[in-house]
Amino acid sequence: MLQVNVRSLLLDPRTVMEVQASEEKEPITIGGEIIRFTEPWDVRGTLANVGGAVIEFDAAVDTEVHMTCSRCMKDVRLPLHITVRQRFAPEQNPDGNPAEPEDDVMRFHGYRIDLQETIAEEVQLAIPMKVLCREDCKGLCPSCGKDLNEGPCGCHHEETDPRWDALKGLLH
């Protein structure tokens, strides 16, 4: 877990804290596809007090995911280089009253900030919905299933526009 004690940052606004971590992650499911991480999440960044007890987290996250080509079903290893920027503030103001909610600020309790959720959100957003093994992937033959990247399959494909099917019925 990427939990950081930020007490020193709250006490001295000029303090900058380095964050470095490397964590293995379990597979996740997005859109019905299981996505495995083939490299750990390599996190390098800083936490800094930007005033008024607001802590800003700036980081770079590098990892690699294993996915399946959307056209030919081959395995694809996709490197991800992600930039994370998030602001955090205490749940309560210094006077003990609850802080006003802000859209761009995540709240934390006590002196611990859990960076895991923020990083996980950015990683999930960086994973493409569909991936290709190469830009010109030809996919699989819809009739016989042969990988068309390896050459033609010999199946006869009559390409017709389905919008003309109703008129075709009138001619026969």
Query: Largest sheet at a glance?
Result: 6 strands, mixed
**β-sheet strand percentage:** 35-45%
Label the overall shape.
Answer: elongated
Number of structurally distinct domains: 2
Question: H/E element string?
Answer: EHEEEEEEEHH
Number of helices: 3
Q: What's the N-to-C terminus distance?
A: 68 Å
InterPro entries: YceD
Protein name: DUF177 domain-containing protein
In short:
This is DUF177 domain-containing protein. This protein folds into 2 domains: about 5-135, no CATH class; about 140-170, no CATH class.
Key descriptive features of the protein:
DUF177 domain-containing protein, 8 strands, mainly beta, six-stranded mixed sheet, YceD
List the helices and strands and how they pair.
Layout: E1 3-5, H1 7-11, E2 16-23, E3 28-30, E4 33-49, E5 55-68, E6 75-90, E7 105-108, E8 112-114, H2 116-126, H3 165-171
Parallel strand pairs: 6-7
Antiparallel strand pairs: 1-8, 2-4, 3-4, 4-5, 5-6
Question: Mind explaining what this structure looks like?
Answer:
It is a single chain. With 172 residues, the chain is mainly beta. The mean pLDDT is 87. The strands form two sheets. Strands 2, 3, 4, 5, 6 and 7 form a six-stranded mixed β-sheet that branches. It has a two-stranded antiparallel ribbon with strand order 1-8. The chain is 13% helix and 40% strand. The protein has two domains: 3-137, no CATH class; 140-172, no CATH class.
